[in-house]
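Form P-L/3: holo structure prediction, ligand zinc ion.
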Amino acid sequence: MFRRIRRVRLYRRRCRRVGHAIFVRNSKMEYQKHKESARSLVLRKIAEFNNFYNFNLGRITIRNQRSRWGSCSKKGNMNFNYRLALIPDKLVDYVIVHELCHIGEFNHSNDFWNLVAQTIPDHSQLRKDLRKIKF
Ligand SMILES: [Zn+2]
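OUTPUT (holo model):
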């Protein structure tokens, strides 16, 4: 009995199912497993969207971030969460374009959202969908 309860607790702590994606919490192994595919996905999509935007890109890093999908510095260096490899493609596009557009507008002004909307017209809905995914 004790052993069974313990196993269930262990499972709950490690895995959480959200939609069709499963998020693993103690995730060093998952990070090792997915970071390369996350990197190629992110690089491919940045190249694709930057064909349109033409921003000067800085360094692009994949991280095991605890609370964010991505970030962008004033120098144009971008960090992305390896969990992008595990979520639907449309949400990945939104995250990529969001961070990319911060190179053009380092804020969340109307000008920023107008930039995003040029390639992701349904960004408001996607942003809501993304918020539902927890890790
Ligand atoms: Zn932002």
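COMMENT: The domain at 26-131 is CATH 3.30.2010.10 (Zincin-like).
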